[in-house]
Amino acid sequence: MIHISDNSIKQVKSLGQNLPVRISVVGGGCSGMSYKLTFEKNPITESDKVFTRDDVTVVVDPKSYLFISGATLEYSGGLDGSGFQVVNPLAKSHCGCGMSFN
């Protein structure tokens, strides 16, 4: 399961895209792996994992799901800047900026 926070729902809706959010895990970053978030314009495949809450849909490919199962899509608008982040209980470590994980 991928959880979608209340703040993320509000932010996705405010962007007015009406498209699913795709979370992918890609190689790179100082800790080895990074998250990639995009609005999905292509059709969702049968193998994709799909999670919907309050009309916001998150899509994850099967390989990425192995690394982020149980994670939460969060949105923060704090003093350090605003943006989406993936709060991942499976990550063993994060880099200093929080953009990549191990």
Q: Could you walk me through the main structural features you see in this protein, from its secondary elements to its overall organization?
A:
This protein starts with a strand and ends with a strand. It is α/β, with parallel strands linked by helices and 102 residues long. The strands form two sheets. The protein has a five-stranded mixed β-sheet with strand order 4-5-2-3-8. Strands 1-6-7 form a three-stranded mixed β-sheet. The longest helix has 10 residues. The protein contains two helices and eight strands. The chain is globular and about 35 Å long. The chain is 17% helix and 41% strand. It has a single domain, classed as Sandwich (Hypothetical Protein Aq_1857, Chain: A).
